[in-house]
Design goal:
globular; alpha/beta; 9 helices; 4-stranded antiparallel beta sheet; 6-stranded mixed beta sheet; Rossmann fold; ATP binding
Length: about 260
């Protein structure tokens, strides 16, 4: 539900970005306010994941035009670490494995780094162990995962739950979920969705990138945006995702052509 007293968390204007000289984003405009959940949909190659990575500060992408304000700060002037500390969180479509790095050590370092930036007290290993185990209950995760290397040998669903666990610990202002539903069976999807819904509140915001309506059955968006060729070409409510699920993207093109004909 949209908060009438919401504050603007993210303001993207005319964002252009490329990689290896190829322009991917060609003028993105998007405003996200506190308490809102935005879904971004579109076919493969439309620029959805690129948009997520550009917001997070991925070094493979170069912004060539436009500006992005995050809580009135120039997001593009920050490196990826500064963005994370400021409250940007990206849950990856394909979480990587980090052999030799224990999950509990990784999570505690991330948590304490953010807490230090916010001026809060850090947790020692014993304090953090109690804290993280409580968070793991939300995602129905076995505490044994704390002693394993980060994502090593995890199933697809376990990796995605570990991503949402990170988000639960870091409490970002803006959570960006890049196809978090990809590769999940229905039970894992419900658990991940329950975690995201639990973490969503009036003071933060979420951007969900997805191909499928099924995620939006469990995490109901306030806005649905359709991307194509590096631009947002259509914005609507949750009903837009249902129409896309029913009719496909060709329906959207036909509708736009009909509207253009009426305007002419």
């Amino acid at each position: 539900m949209i908060n009438q007293n919401s504050q603007t968390i993210l303001n993207v204007k005319n964002l252009h970005a490329n990689t290896d000289g190829t322009e991917i984003l060609k003028g993105i405009n998007l405003t996200v306010k506190s308490g809102e959940i935005h879904a971004i949909m579109g076919l493969n190659g439309s620029g959805k994941s690129t948009f997520a990575k550009v917001l997070a500060g991925h070094p493979d992408y170069t912004v060539t035009q436009g500006n992005v304000l995050f809580e009135q700060q120039d997001l593009l002037a920050m490196n990826s670490e500064e963005r994370a500390q400021a409250g940007i969180f990206l849950a990856f479509q394909y979480p990587i494995e980090i052999p030799g790095v224990a999950n509990n050590q990784f999570l505690r370092l991330a948590y304490n780094t953010v807490q230090s930036k916010r001026g809060n007290e850090e947790l020692d290993p014993l304090e953090f162990d109690d804290f993280v185990r409580e968070k793991m209950k939300l995602l129905e995760m076995n505490p044994d995962f704390l002693d394993r290397s980060v994502n090593e040998g995890f199933s697809g669903g376990e990796k995605k739950r570990n991503e949402i666990l990170q988000m639960a610990l870091l409490e970002p202002k803006l959570g960006i979920l890049d196809e978090t539903d990809s590769g999940l069976d229905i039970d894992a999807l419900k658990i991940v969705a329950k975690g995201v819904n639990h973490l969503s509140n009036k003071d933060n915001a979420m951007i969900m990138i997805t191909h499928y309506q099924r995620l939006l059955d469990h995490i109901v968006p306030d806005y649905v945006h359709v991307m194509e060729s590096g631009r947002i070409i259509k914005t609507g409510g949750k009903e837009l995702a249902l129409e896309l699920e029913k009719h496909g993207y060709d329906w959207l093109h036909s509708q736009q052509q009909n509207n253009a004909g009426v305007s002419a």
